[in-house]
């Protein structure tokens, strides 16, 4: 009976502290909107129903570019944070905007800068204070004012991209997620109640970036750290990679079932780093009594940890 109250925006464990900002920034949906857009997004992404290229293909392309970029460091010490954040962001760009960006592309760097800036602000101690005492936000304007500005600028960039897509849309040949959404909008154009609107498209694309970039980038970074700390595990993973994949081709999803050790290591990395320990907020759809505790229904807006 637990209904999802908000759809996304959970940037690492610190984020669990920022529910007030979560709602303030408007990154949430529930009820009919959440249900319809969630179902559409899941089917579109799961079926790889976006033209000739699958998501796997896009991930492989990005992985090759990431390896190339890491090679440029010539094995000298470096901080991989930025580049490991770029790769997942670029996969999402490829899925929603059709193409990945070059790592030096100005639009891409601006997008990344805004995400990073917002994440830094959201994880600052000051925001934790404001989250517990929301009234303080109005009394002490500070860096957090940048948050809505960054969000608005990101949304306006996505809106520009949507306009470009509208101008070149071929309903028989969707190129990416935005095209699929626009086609769905067209199919629902006579439905006054439709959730498939430009505003919801822009919000959904922003959600995908916010939900997918920091989470995956941080997982990659911690994964590398754990492999460095456990060279005996890394050696076994490497042995399995060489045995199953070899050195001439990219890994693919089919390899997974032949690589039980690597699969287990990936799961263990995710378990160990515990990136979103309290999950995202949920609410119950009806009053629920559990032992002597009452969880009031969604209308009363009581948030529950997942
Ligand atoms: C290692 C990387 C990731 C981690 C650890 C992670 C973690 C999570 C968690 C804990 C939830 C909440 C589930 C719940 O309680 O209902 C969630 C939901 C979600 N994630 Fe991820 N995620 C990751 C990557 C991604 C990526 C790459 C995307 C998209 C491109 C994404 C999109 C979403 C969305 C849209 C939701 C909300 C789904 C809903 O409303 O039911 N995530 N994720």
UniProtKB/TrEMBL annotation:
Gene Ontology cellular-component annotations: cytoplasm
Classification via SUPFAM superfamilies: Cytochrome P450
InterPro entries reported for this sequence: Cyt_P450 (IPR001128), Cyt_P450_E_grp-I (IPR002401), Cyt_P450_sf (IPR036396), Cytochrome_P450_fam2 (IPR050182)
Transmembrane segments: 7-27
UniProt keyword Metal-binding present: yes
Keywords, sorted A to Z: Heme, Iron, Membrane, Metal-binding, Transmembrane, Transmembrane helix
Cofactor(s) this protein cannot do without: heme
Domain of life: Eukaryota
Molecular function per GO: heme binding; iron ion binding; oxidoreductase activity, acting on paired donors, with incorporation or reduction of molecular oxygen, reduced flavin or flavoprotein as one donor, and incorporation of one atom of oxygen
One Pfam family, short name: p450
Cited PANTHER family: CYTOCHROME P450 2C8, CYTOCHROME P450 508A4-RELATED
Protein name: Cytochrome P450 family 2 subfamily C member 8
Protein's organism: Colobus angolensis palliatus
Organism classification: Eukaryota, Metazoa, Chordata, Craniata, Vertebrata
């Amino acid at each position: 009976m637990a209904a999802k109250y908000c759809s996304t925006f959970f940037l690492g464990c610190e984020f669990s502290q920022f529910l007030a900002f979560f709602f303030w920034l408007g990154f949430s949906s529930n009820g009919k909107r959440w249900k319809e857009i969630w179902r559409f997004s899941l089917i579109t992404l799961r079926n790889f129903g976006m033209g000739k290229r699958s998501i796997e293909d896009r991930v492989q392309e990005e992985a090759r570019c990431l390896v190339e970029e890491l090679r440029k460091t010539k094995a000298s010490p470096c901080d991989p944070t930025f580049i490991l954040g770029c790769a997942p962001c670029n996969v999402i760009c490829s899925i929603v905007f059709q193409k990945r960006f070059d790592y030096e592309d100005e639009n891409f760097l601006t997008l990344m800068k805004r995400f990073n800036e917002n994440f830094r602000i959201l994880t600052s101690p000051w925001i934790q204070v404001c989250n517990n005492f929301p009234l303080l936000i109005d009394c002490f304007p500070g860096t957090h004012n940048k948050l809505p500005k960054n969000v608005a600028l990101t949304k306006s960039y996505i809106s520009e991209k949507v306009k470009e897509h509208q101008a070149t849309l071929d309903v028989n040949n969707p190129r990416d997620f935005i095209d699929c959404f626009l086609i769905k909008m067209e199919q629902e154009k006579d439905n006054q109640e439709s959730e498939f609107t430009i505003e919801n498209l822009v919000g959904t694309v922003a959600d995908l970036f916010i939900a997918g970039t920091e989470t995956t980038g941080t997982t990659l970074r911690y994964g590398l750290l754990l492999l460095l700390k456990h060279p005996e595990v890394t050696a076994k993973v490497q042995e399995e990679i060489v045995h199953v994949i070899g050195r001439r081709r990219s890994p693919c999803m089919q390899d997974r079932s032949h690589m039980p050790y690597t699969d287990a290591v990936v799961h263990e990395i995710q378990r160990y780093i515990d990136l979103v320990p309290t999950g995202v907020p949920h609410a119950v759809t009806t009053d629920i009594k559990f032992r002597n505790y009452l969880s009031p229904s969604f209308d009363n807006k009581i948030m529950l940890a997942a």
